[in-house]
Amino acid sequence: MWKICWYAAFRLRDTKVLSAETFKRQKLIKTIRENCLFSKTFKATIGLSEEILEKDVTIPEERALWLPRQCH
């Protein structure tokens, strides 16, 4: 999600987007959908990301998956 925040901050020219206290995920998604600076493809990507997050899919960027070590 951080890559989206950075891209949104760049396109909107607003560094407040990078602050987790100022911009919550839902507010960021709403801002992107309402703004004409973003392409339809990017907005569709946001929709897909939102669906994935709502279904509680593990995101590798946020959680590391540690596999058990194999003993030899």
Low-confidence blocks of residues: none
Distance between the termini: 39 Å
Query: Which descriptor suits the 3D outline?
Result: globular
The tally of beta strands, per DSSP, is 0
Beta-strand residue percentage = under 5%
User: Biggest β-sheet, characterized?
Assistant: none
Tally of alpha and pi helices = 3
Rounded Rg? 16 Å
One letter per element, helices H and strands E, the order comes to HHH
What count of structural domains? 1
Helix content: 40-55%
> Which structural class do the helices and strands define?
mainly alpha
Q: Please tell me the overall pLDDT.
A: 77
Describe, in plain words, how this protein is organized in 3D.
The N and C termini lie far apart (39 Å). The protein has one domain. The longest helix is centred in the middle third of the chain and has 15 residues, at 40-54. With 72 residues, the protein is mainly alpha-helical. It is built from three helices and no strands. It has helices spanning 2-12, 25-34, 40-54.
Write the layout of secondary structure elements.
Layout: H1 2-12, H2 25-34, H3 40-54
Q: Which key phrases capture this entry?
A:
72 residues; mainly alpha; 3 helices; 50% helix
Short note summarizing the structure:
By secondary structure, the protein is an all-alpha fold. It is built from 3 helices and no strands. The chain is globular.
